[in-house]
Design a protein that fits this description.
GO terms for molecular function: acetate-CoA ligase activity; AMP binding; ATP binding; propionate-CoA ligase activity. This protein is of the alpha/beta class and 673 residues long. Helices cover 34% and strands 22% of the residues. The strands form nine sheets. The protein has an eight-stranded mixed sheet, with helices on both faces. Strand 31 and strand 32 form a beta hairpin. Helix 5 crosses helix 7, helix 5 packs parallel to helix 12 and helix 6 packs across helix 7.
């Protein structure tokens, strides 16, 4: 049965999508092959409007066309946002790994699926779709033979590498869910996630390699599983030649894979079966196991990958996110592979062996779309243009940013220097909970404007609204409020593992009938959206609510990066405390810098938003994924060092001590004034 299914749907997909890959998208039919079936749709903006006004027809057409089904779905959606009930494509049966591998092997077996950009620069390794399918099948057979069943959850604690991708797809192939844990997390953090997922199997490597440094991942797993009674076996792959101690619980994974067949029968999965868990931070401190399911997630990841980035067949897609995060899931693995694309697995750091690493990679691998984090862009901006311009970046067509709002200066540098002023920059807004990109400048009409630092336009089927403090929808433009979604979409999360009540309380109770994102946003006079930051990253100065991102979006030429938090103020209630990192080789007096920043903030926002305290820092405390740990900065300013918590997930915990010392010095100087 499987060859027939794969063949049928591969032919249909190639026939429908090949048009957009072969010619300029000069009309809606060429842009989206499903569009001719939508009455009255003659432009991309009308297509977006239709996707919202008649979302059921839109998603039915796209779902039928772009996924390979074993059995067709009978119900497009059964959703009720008041109850947190989300179901898409019920009745449909499929296998995600077949959609990501088999159907492409049938048409283009030797097309490159993965380019592994190893930590060692210049030592990339390519894997074709045929090779990735064989690797996935062998590992799927190992898991099956060793007792992993449909519905089990396998925890994966690995660096970004082909075997990690194969592990994700092998789970999908046999019907097990996967729980990828970022390989920088501590043993305690890993153990907590293993226990919540109730995993009986963990997959890891002997050592991780990143930035020229080795991390003992197997040892971390050994420590973690001591407090995880559910774990029965640990599969260990060898990233380096360094031997590790193997216990009775441990399995040499690659040796076992060599014993297996290269054919693994795919499980027949229901659309709403669990595909994976991914743990994200919660306001209570306990991680939330966000649940994503099969068909809806895969369709949304594939559609956003193709249209936000204008990905065409033959392109090389370079998402440099770690697979331990949702960006790595959706735009390193599932989106590109569902589209039959070539995707880069980036194992290293932006500055190893030097600050030209990204652009050396772009030149060598001929990357067409580059997708990275604003924090990395700001970091590289500090080192100057020459690290960029020394490399050929002529293959680049689209630049993307993800993870947090990108400030205007970083956006303009990214566009002007990295993209030579010719590549659109798509500042994307989305979350672990949304499954894929929800707001971005593209897709749009080809000549539509892009405003620096703004996410701008909702994606197909996405209907954002802004809510006031009374829970009423703000209908006018040029206004700010809580960002919510007024209707469901296929990629959204279904629940929090073992705690659906928390899921409802977090996302659906704050504004009944709407999905609450937890973010604040501004809608411009033109109707474009700009994310102003987490609503718990809002500072209330003398009754004025200011998103930290609004202040951090500085255009001061001396500043490379900044982080703003609120602190207790005797008069204002809450004051503004700014941590500032200067660009390399900048020589400026603190008083002059303070005047420049206050003038800039006063002009851009208002005088009340000006920082009350500015502390210079060499670097900011960040997670290994690049996010600034504002929680840590708040604790330092509040002098609650006992409340700093676990710092093991930071890229460099010693940065915190530098911040503490700087704060003490700053406080002493202010006391003398």
């Amino acid at each position: 049965m499987w060859p027939c299914v794969v063949s049928s749907f591969s032919r249909r997909l190639v026939a429908s999508l090949g048009v957009c890959g072969r010619r300029k998208c000069c009309g809606t039919a060429a842009f989206m092959p499903e569009a001719p079936a939508f009455e009255g749709v003659r432009s991309r903006s009308e297509l977006r409007d239709f996707s919202v006004s008649d979302s059921e027809r839109f998603w039915a057409a796209v779902g039928n066309q772009r996924l390979s089904w074993i059995s067709p779905f009978h119900t497009v959606q059964d959703c009720d946002l008041t109850q947190g009930r989300i179901k898409w494509f019920e009745g449909g049966k499929l296998n995600v790994s077949v959609n990501c591998l088999d159907r492409h092997v049938h048409t283009s077996p030797d097309r490159v699926a993965l380019i592994w950009e190893r930590d060692e620069q210049g030592s990339e390794v390519k894997y074709t779709y045929r090779e990735l399918l064989e690797m996935t099948c062998r590992l799927g057979n190992v898991l099956r033979r060793r007792g992993v069943k449909r519905g089990d959850c396998v925890t994966i604690y690995m660096p970004t590498c082909p075997l990690a991708v194969a592990a994700m797809l092998a789970c999908a192939r046999i019907g097990a869910a996967h729980n990828v844990v970022f390989a920088g997390f501590s043993a305690d953090a890993l153990a907590e996630r293993i226990r919540d997922a109730e995993s009986n199997t963990v997959i890891t490597v002997n050592q991780g390699v990143r930035g020229g440094k080795f991390t003992e991942l197997k040892k971390t797993v050994d420590e973690a599983v001591q407090s995880c009674p559910s774990v029965q076996q640990v599969l260990v792959a060898m990233r380096t030649d360094t031997p590790v101690v193997m216990t009775a619980r441990d399995v040499a994974m690659e040796e076992e894979m060599l014993k297996e067949d290269v054919v693994c029968e795919p499980a027949v999965m229901n659309s709403e079966d669990v595909l994976f868990l991914l743990y994200t931070s919660g306001s209570t401190g306990k991680p939330k196991g966000i649940v994503h399911t099969q068909a809806g997630y895969l369709l949304y990841a594939a559609l956003t990958h193709r249209y936000v980035f204008s990905y065409h067949d033959g392109d090389v897609f370079g998402c440099v996110a770690d697979i331990g995060w949702i960006t790595g899931h959706s735009y390193t693995v599932y989106g590109p592979l569902a589209n039959g694309g070539t995707t880069v697995l980036f194992e290293s750091t932006p500055i190893y062996p030097d600050p030209g690493r990204y652009w050396n990679t772009v030149e060598r691998l001929k990357i067409n779309q580059f997708y990275g984090a604003p924090t990395a862009i700001r970091l590289l901006l500090k080192y100057g243009d020459h690290w960029v311009t020394k490399y050929d970046r002529s293959t680049l067509k689209t630049l993307g940013s993800v993870g947090e709002p990108i400030n205007t200066e970083a956006w303009e540098w990214y566009h002007r220097v990295v993209g030579d002023g010719r590549c659109p920059v798509v500042d994307t807004w989305w979350q672990t909970e949304t499954g894929g990109i929800c707001i971005a400048p593209r897709p749009s009409e080809p000549d539509a404007e892009i405003v620096p630092g703004m996410a701008m336009r909702p994606f197909f089927g996405i209907k954002p609204v802004l809510m006031d403090t009374e829970g009423k929808v703000l209908t006018s433009n040029n206004t700010s409020g809580a960002l919510c979604m007024a209707q469901p979409w296929p990629g959204m999360a279904r629940t929090i593992r073992n705690n659906h009540q928390r899921f409802i309380e977090t996302y659906y109770q704050p504004y009944p009938g709407y999905f609450f994102t937890g973010d604040g946003a501004y809608r411009s006079a033109q109707g474009y959206y700009q994310i102003t930051g987490r609503l718990d990253d809002v500072i209330n100065v003398s009754g004025h609510r200011i998103g930290t991102a609004e202040i951090e979006d500085n255009q001061c030429s001396a500043v490379a990066e900044s982080a703003v938090i609120g602190f207790s103020h005797d008069i204002k209630g809450e004051g503004v405390y700014a941590f500032v990192v200067l660009k390399k080789n900048i020589d400026i007096k603190e008083d002059d810098l303070s005047r420049q920043l206050n003038k800039m903030v006063s002009k851009k926002i208002a005088k009340y938003a000006c920082p009350d305290v500015i502390q210079l820092a060499n670097r900011l405390p960040k997670t290994r994924s690049g996010k600034i740990m504002r929680r840590v900065l708040r604790k330092v300013v509040e002098r609650d060092l006992d409340g700093l918590g676990d710092l093991s997930t930071l890229d460099d915990p010693t940065a915190v001590q530098e911040i503490v010392e700087g704060h003490n010095k700053n406080s002493a100087q202010r006391a003398l004034k």
